[in-house]
From TrEMBL:
It holds the Pfam family GerE. Residues 131-196 form the HTH luxR-type domain. One of its GO terms (molecular function) is DNA binding. This is DNA-binding NarL/FixJ family response regulator. Keywords: DNA-binding, Transcription, Transcription regulation. The keyword Ribonucleoprotein does not apply. InterPro entries: CheY-like_superfamily (IPR011006), Sig_transdc_resp-reg_C-effctor (IPR016032), Tscrpt_reg_LuxR_C (IPR000792). GO terms for biological process: regulation of DNA-templated transcription. Gene3D superfamilies: 3.40.50.2300.
Amino acid sequence: MQVPYPAVHIMHGDAVMAAGIHALLAAHGEFHLTSHDRQPNGQAHARVIIADYDSGIILARQLSPDRLGVAPRVLIVTQLDKEWQVRTAMDSGVHGYLLQGCSAEELVRAVQQLSQGMRYLAEAVTRCVADSLSRESLTGRETDVLLLLARGCCNKSIARELGIGVGTVKTHVKGLMSKLDATARTHAVVVAAQRGLIGSGARPVPLPGRQPRVGAAMQ
């Protein structure tokens, strides 16, 4: 009995990347391919969905299993390679993570493994995740405080912004400095930036009582 080709839906936000991914996978001849710009309904039948970073995370959080209990596997193809960015994607339920510039062979291998129910991480991000697991992670509130420290906020400003006491802020600052092995507040910001914990890949500071909108997250 002939095994049907696995359905792969390409919805990368970068049109050039999407076209390149489609061409590379089509040349391999092993997949049933659909593109979101031409066949948006292909997402409903896909075994693997290839997306950019932001769209991939949102998809991974929202996708639910079909009537057979199977959910599509999400593969992100991106240039973002920082520890925080990779961990955020994996914690959100993303199944595969590739870096732009990967070889055609690696792209095919990643799609094959995801279509078989496995995960795939590029070698570079595998090392990144492995290194991060050896370090104690910051809590959500410590990350909020860190982001405000990076803006140059003092303890009183941070307390007012987050709706907590100044003493609590000091406790969080002490905790994050210990985890980052930093000797000063500015040193903590530098170390966090080097590890990708703040910067373009960091999550925004949530204000009390507010939730980020999905539409805003995709912008």
